[in-house]
Design a protein that fits this description.
alpha+beta, eight-stranded mixed β-sheet, single chain, 291 residues
Amino acid sequence: MSESQFCSKLLIAEYLIELNSEMPFELEDGYQPFLAGDDNREADIRIQCYKGIPEKLYNADNLVFEAENEEQKYYSIYKTGDDLLFVVHSQQKKDTIQQIAILDKSFKNWKVYTNSDDESFLPLKYPLGPIVMNYMTLFSEAVMMHASCAFDGEKARIFTGFSGAGKSTMSKIWSEARNRIINDDRLIVRKQGDNYFVYNTPMYYVDISKKAPLSAVYLISHSPVNKIKKLTGVTAMTRMMAFSIQNNFDKQYIQTRLNLFTDLCSKIPVYDLGFVPDSSVVKFILENEVN
């Protein structure tokens, strides 16, 4: 590394991420508690950051995936040789490319080109940061999920479901019951040995890095009464996979996820939970889950 090069290291879900640039760059406030300082281990992920997007960097004919809704585009993925190329759209400026990022076939090395029209140089600006975190889980036994997680000091319970199902409500209820909230939106579940652990990820707000042992997964929905059903086998696996963050354009990625969820659901109980959005659900869960 040359003396003129700027470097920052992040430790997220125990993955060491190293960012390098020839120019000073910034990381949003949510990343600050995850800075790894002088960690001298070999990085799991390396990101070379550039300010400015070169012309004709990608071939628009090789589109393999697009993340968008009726209101806005998030990102598009192109196949270019053995690499993946991400065209990331600004969430503040419509029809503006925010970044172009190239990920090599090892899933460990990124080149990130950030639009130089931005006043600040933010190589992990949303939504690219979560994209990087999602793809770093693909080469190890881990997955990113849309979920909340409460930890009582011994057990971590994940609550996941469709938008509006009550993930944030569950976080509030369990927090008021003196549980520690690992995160209420975006988690990484990672296998270590024979166990699974839950980690928070950097958000738009500042929160310390957290880790807890996973004990149960609840697929939640609002209900006039508290009710619970244990799920097993393919049902548990497919229901849970629906709330993981994934790009299903490659058979290898799909198989990797299937293997992970098959193992996870064989070790961690998965429940279908209809709940009343008040404190009664805490006692109900504690009385009805399998130890």
